């Protein structure tokens, strides 16, 4: 039960689109992730997903509504089942809150971008 | 499905020890709260509770282990059932992640400090 520092967490890895578990509570986790450029279109049929931008600029595109533009300190919840595509307009640091086992690419076909969440070492 | 800005959220209220719901996902919420001084000893028997300090200095005291000292960017999960007392050493802004309906004073007797979580207006 030691505090985790977000700056140290983000400094501990470089890989983009590969969320790390920073902390777990109940069946949910706070994950830290680095985004850059375009991700894949996907949805999470079983869970809502919260994005909180720590640094950078994140656009979240939707099929059927206006894009959401998030800067530092902005958060957004994408409801379950809503197809979306994160696009980082510059190297961006993001906190995610979602069930621990949530796969980053959701219902999209597995690809090089698919990562099981891993714990911070 | 509009982004929420944390600076604006914290600027929208002054009351201490009265968490506001900034966003909800599944059965959990991200809440924003202002702490100052000593809170009451309590535990949450049904849920873990995550504290993330946005600004200020937060000490979390425990009955049976060393205190945890958190500054900006530090987060800590207090497991369910663990008695704790938050003490803000200066005016402090905190994000909480926990089930939406979690009562701030947990199993402590209801007092002037007890607040049902309310949504940001």
From TrEMBL, chains A, B:
CDD domains: cupin_YdbB-like. SUPFAM superfamilies: RmlC-like cupins (SSF51182). This is Dsbh domain containing protein. Residues 9-76 form the Cyclic nucleotide-binding domain. PANTHER family: 16.7 KDA PROTEIN IN WHIE LOCUS (PTHR36114:SF1). InterPro entries: cNMP-bd_dom (IPR000595), Cupin_2 (IPR013096), PKS_Associated_Protein (IPR052044), RmlC-like_jellyroll (IPR014710), RmlC_Cupin_sf (IPR011051). Pfam families: Cupin_2. It comes from the Archaea. Residues 112-121 have a biased composition (Basic and acidic residues). Residues 100-121 are annotated as: Disordered. It comes from Haloferax denitrificans ATCC 35960.
